[in-house]
Amino acid sequence: MNPWAIKNQKRSVTSLQSLSVLAFVRNWDTLHSTPMPPIYHHDLVERCLVRGRVERLRSMILRREILISLLGGSDCLVLFHRCIQHLMDAGIPICSDIATLIRTGVSIEDRLRIGMFLGQCGWYDPAQTVLSDLASDPATTPTQLHHTLTHSAYLAALDYNFSKAQLSLEKAGDIVDGVGSRALSWGITAYRFYCVSQYDEASVWAEKALVAIDDQIDTKSCILLLRLLSKVYINTRKFCRAECLVSHAVNLSLVTYSPSHPEYAAALQDYGFCLLHLDRVEESVTVYHRALKIMCDVFGELNVRSAVAHEDLAYATYVYQYNHGNYTRCLELSDASIRIVNKLLPEEHLLRASTSRLRALILEELAYNKIESREGRQLLKEAQSLHRDSLKLCKRVLGESNIQTAKHYGNLGRLYQSMGLFKSAEKMHKRAIKIKESLLGPDNYEVALSLGHLASLYNYDMKRYKAALPLYLRSISISIAIFGPAFSGLEYDYRGLMHLYSNTDKMEGYHDNLVKLQDWIELRKRCESKGEADLVNPSGGKLLPTATVIQRILGQCDCA
After folding, report:
1. Distance between CA 75 and CA 52 in Å, rounded?
2. Burial of 92 (0-12, 13-18, 19+ CB in 10 A)
3. What is the value of pTM for the model shown?
4. For 495-527, what is each residue's pLDDT tens digit?
5. Fewer Cβ neighbours under 10 Å: the N or C end of the chain?
6. Measured CA distances, 323 to 59, 249, 327, 363 (Å)
7. Are 340 and 307 in contact (CB under 8 A)?
8. Phi-psi region for residue 517, left (φ > 0), alpha (ψ -120 to 50) or beta?
9. Angle (CA) 158 163 167, round 5°
10. Please, is 325 exposed, middle or buried when counting C-beta atoms within 10 Å of its C-beta (0-12, 13-18, 19+)?
């Protein structure tokens, strides 16, 4: 056949389908019960979304056969995410409507997929309603029940409801027969222990989960598991293992979903978290920026997942600006996160503490060169209020003995130092150190950070040089042991020691640390001159089998 004829034939088919879809959209009120081929479902919903017909869009999605077909390939899922968000933005409770609709006429497997999908959308309450209905349905098999409880636990942990997560995991653990791989439930158990600062238990469960990864676990569950384990291993200083796992999760996500899918963005967020803790701050900012763009493209500006993505990028940018001093963009991102959280979440939600804490940190930096002015004092006063409220909420939800609580104490200590309240600052820093040492041991980076802050207070403000010296030396020792001699935070300790020795007329110590600072500057230049990897596809296009990745991890000692 003539190639032009083939081309025109394809165009005619496409045009016929487009005309049919357009006719359905325009006449939905009379045609809504008319059967249609599944091939039309995606185009039909997309056309309705583009035309802004919210009531018709809701009616389409609440047809069970359309609802199920939208759970198909990656393109369908991204469209489905956008539709759900569009309807929620319009004030239509589509997630609750779906949860009610699928109680009948939908298979157990499809109900489970829908519950997990709603969780991916960031609408945790309707997702939990679906999963709770499934868990109590007598038709649910042991395998399905185990999957249901496992994902319910994960969503509860994401929503900072750690008691519900624990209860779901305990119920999942009580299912003895017919559940297949338990690797994911063990990984979520590790993640829950990590969230509540029970790190020894987190490490034990992480090892169990890692060893248990096999062919029985599906790819999407494997991606989630790798991401969760990476976070646990970062905290236990197994950095090579953490980076290997999360890099593989990013690669798998790119293949399994698509570059525009929110689950790929979620993997990027965890990769950014890993890079930040590896002191690769600029790379972390790049990755977080990509993740935020995807989340906003899918969910817009009024979704909890967008709020978290804004906060992630804001914090990484805040850390990066330590050496640059331009906090305008950080504040914009932080305020966007706060607006979303305040609109969507209750006052007692822990994410409010996190977003308020970040804004307070940024305000303190903005006030640094204006402390004597009225504007500077107002910024510090607002920061103090935000820090106190965040600490109060964190203690109420997580208790005193938690790393997040310790961080809030340390933040207040730095703020009080800026405000000239040195005794109060000392008290806060000491409390932070005590909690961190009890939970993490004496040689953890978080401990080193707080030691450096207390040393700075003694050195610059209280003139207690004798007390500051061992704190600086211990902070430097821990940082080099963990990150090496090019670690970015060493600059502040070296400069602090130079100030200390200068003010105690010990010029030999001053010159020793000046040399160390100069060596450090050269090391940083060399590190920064290295070419960047492909940060949105760490494998560079080469995807190893998961079994090979796990075998390599288990067969080598981790580098700390």
Report:
1. 19
2. middle
3. 0.90
4. 999 999 999 999 999 999 999 999 999 998 887
5. N
6. 53, 31, 11, 16
7. yes
8. alpha
9. 100
10. exposed
